[in-house]
Amino acid sequence: MTEHISTRVNSHRLAAYIGRTVRLVGKTLKIQGDTAIVEASDGGQVEIRLPKDPPLTGTYNEIIGNVIDGSTVKMLMCIDLGSDLDMKLVDDMVELTHDPKFHEKMFT
Amino acid sequence: MSQYENNYYQNGGAGGGGFLTGGSPGSANGSPGGMGRKNEAQHSLRPVTVGQLRKATQAHTDAEWMIENDEIGQVTVVAQVMSIQVQTTNTVYWLDDGSGRIEARHWMDSSNPEDVEKWGGIVENTYVRVTGNLKTFGNKRYINAQHIRPSTNPHELYFHLGEAMVTNLMIERGMPPGPGQTAQQNGVVASGSGASAYTTQSRAQTSQFAGLPPLQRSIMEFLHSQPPNDEGVHVGAIARSVQGGDAAQISSALDALMDDGHVYTTLDDSHFQIST
């Protein structure tokens, strides 16, 4: 079942998840061809390798993808989270899911 | 040997009673009407992650589900719908909330147009909130969904994660201290065990009897501080320990406490015991 876990991350946690599937919430800054630059919930910029489908539609999207390196994610799918999102809340929750009090019991 | 048989017989009798109250087997299969169940947990609704549901355990196939050591009733998750399979009698939703995947099944009454409308708004690749009970079919775990609705505000997901974490902590450690009693029980008490334990106790009592007039309150606090004793406390001991009141005032204060049911007399009219 471990292959179905997609941990929620921000930009600075990407490096710990190289080769694995993650969920990264990003605000789209620009899209150029098949790459996009998004701002993660902790303010860091992440390069997203886009598939042909689906497109990044919202201002904010949850990107589910494989981590290539500490600043690049290959997107598998995305969920449109609209244009109004409290990124501070998102980042706090991302950090809490990695808290040892919760991580093992609830998010693995 | 005869004693053994006697015990055996009694146990058999108790076992019969257990069968009656132990819940009809039908209720485990999802039919309503487990009238014998007194379990409060069965009527509770706990926010959880899919990861917790995957790790939930069950002593045997009819037993209640447990997360860690805590029984669960209904659960609610917020998760992404990966796929929807509409079948003749039910719809299967594959849910993924990042901590794992689980199926949610909804048994549909397709002849009821209201039902179809209510359940029709779910599309793949969006977040939904699902409420239901954890079940198994064969070796597969699923949520028997009572309710599914689209989660249109993205903040609901993050609220849910926070709520699930808080719930987990409260079950593990108990309720957090209320405002004004911060950390009193947790940290400070460690220093000078006897004295500080006494301080916290009397402080707690002050609040417990805060509604009473001062003399009645100090009588109650004195009675409360006495070791438990069936005979109660003699009025003379009360008079000696309580400051600021003559015999008549103490006597009328005791009368008032008796009228309100806070204390009662034991051996005779001059021995008092606190009502619990």
Automatic annotation (TrEMBL), chain A:
Pfam families recorded for this chain? Rep_fac-A_3
SUPFAM superfamilies on file: Nucleic acid-binding proteins
- Quote one Gene Ontology molecular function term: single-stranded DNA binding
GO terms classed as biological process: base-excision repair; DNA replication; double-strand break repair via homologous recombination; mismatch repair; nucleotide-excision repair
- Is Nucleus included in the keywords of this UniProt record? yes
Key word Nucleus present in the record? yes
Write out the entry's keywords from A to Z.
Nucleus
Q: Which domain of life is it from?
A: Eukaryota
**Entry-linked CDD domains:** RPA3 (cd04479)
**A GO CC annotation given for this chain:** DNA replication factor A complex
Report the principal subcellular site: nucleus
- Which parts pass through the membrane? none
Where it sits in the cell: the answer is: Nucleus
Family classification: Belongs to the replication factor A protein 3 family.
Q: Cross-referenced PANTHER family, in alphabetical order?
A: REPLICATION PROTEIN A 14 KDA SUBUNIT, REPLICATION PROTEIN A3
Q: What is this protein called?
A: Replication factor A protein 3
| Organism this protein belongs to | Piloderma croceum (strain F 1598)
The upper taxonomy is: Eukaryota, Fungi, Dikarya, Basidiomycota, Agaricomycotina
From TrEMBL, chain B:
Q: Where is the OB domain?
A: 75-150
Stretches of Gly residues bias are at: 19-36
What UniProt keywords apply to this chain's record, in alphabetical order? DNA replication, DNA-binding, Nucleus
InterPro entries listed in its UniProt record: NA-bd_OB-fold (IPR012340), NA-bd_OB_tRNA (IPR004365), RFA2-like (IPR040260), Rfa2/RPA32 (IPR014646), RPA_C (IPR014892), WH-like_DNA-bd_sf (IPR036388), WH_DNA-bd_sf (IPR036390)
**One record GO biological process:** double-strand break repair via homologous recombination
CDD domains registered for this protein in UniProt: RPA2_DBD_D
Q: Where is the Replication protein A C-terminal domain?
A: 181-269
What are this entry's molecular-function GO terms? single-stranded DNA binding
An annotated GO cellular component: DNA replication factor A complex
Its subcellular locations are: Nucleus
Question: Where is region (Disordered) located?
Answer: 19-54
**SUPFAM superfamilies given in the database record:** Nucleic acid-binding proteins, Winged helix' DNA-binding domain
Family to which the UniProt record says this protein belongs: Belongs to the replication factor A protein 2 family.
PANTHER family attached to this UniProt entry: REPLICATION PROTEIN A-RELATED, REPLICATION PROTEIN A2
UniProt-recorded name of the protein: Replication protein A C-terminal domain-containing protein
